[in-house]
Write a structure and sequence with these properties.
Layout lengths: L13 E8 H5 L9 H9 L3 H22 L7 E3 L7 E4 L4 E10 L2 E7 L4 E6 L6 H8 L2 H9 L2 H22 L5 H6 E5 L7 E5 L3 E6 L5 E5 L7 E7 L12
Parallel strand pairs: 1-10
Antiparallel strand pairs: 1-5, 2-3, 3-4, 4-5, 6-9, 7-11, 8-9, 8-11
Helix pairs in contact: 4-5, 4-6, 5-6
The structure holds coenzyme A.
Coenzyme A (COA) binds next to helix 3, strand 4, helix 4 and helix 6.
């Protein structure tokens, strides 16, 4: 997403994020502009629910890119080079933007930006071995807190930390890498300095990882305003670390 700013100042990134219902969008979702790889991946997926998620996500990101950068949704070529953030490219106009997709149940979230972006949506469910998973994938202090909790409080604390790391992993293009994920520390931040937005609902948590200072247009369908954080990489066991999320 380009800018005409010639002042030398770092242009402000723009992010558009939208949460949709997969079932409500499926009938209108088309496959215009899909690459051979996307078509092959779609054919490979056998589960109807997962197929619908894939279809709606790859349709919706093109629609968002066109809203932001103009042109028809079918012009966008989707790419996710290994170890890099996913992107959409319009070869004709020489335009590109970064994208991220996440889905759970009937929810799908798509984000488009001119800087790297990652998003994750999770249902808060008390159904996995959360304490062990926290020890493996969250910061040591978060894992300690989660080990002391149980039931919905434990699940909420876990999925906040987990969704942050999934979103950051998608922005990086690596997915969640446990060693790196354990080093991620988060701090509350003023909106202008934030690089993470977290929307907490009663049953779900939604995270957006974005460039600092980004202008965010979010259509989440959630009541509460987002919480703002910034993140940094700490050492795995640094007792002096400030409070984690
Ligand atoms: C791959 C991974 C990012 C998917 O996340 P998820 O929460 O399972 O699923 P989500 O619905 O949120 O996200 C899926 C979307 O992420 C995107 N995605 C997948 N891998 C990605 C990557 N490496 N980088 C950026 N985006 C990626 C895709 O768009 C995918 O949707 P699509 O296939 O419909 O296009 C996640 O499973 C992961 O990080 N895996 C790494 C290994 C792991 O599981 N580690 C945990 C051990 S503690």
């Amino acid at each position: 997403m380009g800018s005409d700013d010639s002042s030398g100042a770092t242009p402000q990134a723009r992010v558009v994020l939208r949460v949709d219902s997969v079932s409500a969008c499926e009938a209108q979702s088309d496959r215009q502009g899909w690459s051979h790889l996307e078509r092959a991946r779609y054919t490979e997926i056998t589960d109807p629910g997962r197929k619908a998620q894939y279809r709606v996500g790859h349709w919706r990101v093109r629609g968002l890119a066109s809203v932001v950068l103009g042109g028809l949704p079918g012009v966008w070529r989707y790419e996710r080079p290994p170890g890099e953030c996913a992107r959409l490219i319009d070869d004709e106009r020489g335009l590109a933007c970064f994208v991220s997709i996440s889905h759970v149940d009937d929810y799908i979230v798509c984000a488009v930006s001119d800087d790297v972006v990652g998003t994750d949506i999770e249902m808060i469910r008390d159904e996995r071995e959360l304490s062990a998973l926290a020890k493996r994938c969250l910061a040591p202090r978060e894992a300690e807190v989660i080990a002391q909790l149980s039931g919905p409080a434990q699940a909420t604390a876990f999925y906040r930390g987990w969704a942050i790391r999934e979103a950051l992993g998608k922005a990086a293009g690596t997915g969640l890498v446990p060693g790196t994920a354990r080093r991620i520390r988060t701090l509350p931040a003023a909106p202008a300095e934030a690089t993470l937005r977290l929307w907490a609902g009663a049953d779900r948590v939604l995270v957006l990882a974005h460039a600092a200072g980004a202008q965010i247009e979010a259509f989440t369908g959630m009541d509460k305003a987002p919480e703002n954080f910034r993140w940094y990489l700490g050492e795995p066991r640094q007792e002096s670390d400030p409070e984690d999320v």
